[in-house]
Amino acid sequence: MSKKTMELNPRHPIIKELRRRVEADENDKAVKDLVFLLFDTSLLTSGFQLEDPTGYAERINRMIKLGLSLDEEEEAAEATVAETAPAEVTAGTSSMEQVD
């Protein structure tokens, strides 16, 4: 079986900007996510399957949050409050069917 090769155009604006950001801060998590997204997306468009589709989805969600300027810590705090809030259910108002 032959190996597949991924070629990058070093003059492409995306590659130039990624390189600039890596040189500025090689520990930038957003840049790492973008590089993995670029690679994973190229795999998908070439007809391959991802080894870690969950990781891909998590990176996509982080990039969406970043693009929308949403704070992950703030969202986590809201989720915790929602999980601990008691559900108010009164008899006869449940929309769930009862199963014998």
TrEMBL record:
SUPFAM superfamilies reported in the protein's UniProt record: HSP90 C-terminal domain (SSF110942)
Gene3D superfamilies the record matches: Heat shock protein 90, C-terminal domain
Biased composition (Low complexity): 78-91
Pfam families: HSP90 (PF00183)
Keywords of this entry: Chaperone
Domain of life: Eukaryota
InterPro entries listed in its UniProt record: HSP90_C, Hsp90_fam
Residue ranges, annotated region (Disordered): 76-100
GO molecular function: ATP binding; ATP hydrolysis activity; ATP-dependent protein folding chaperone; unfolded protein binding
Keyword Membrane: no
Family the UniProt entry places it in: Belongs to the heat shock protein 90 family.
Protein name: Hsp90 family protein
Organism of provenance: Leishmania donovani
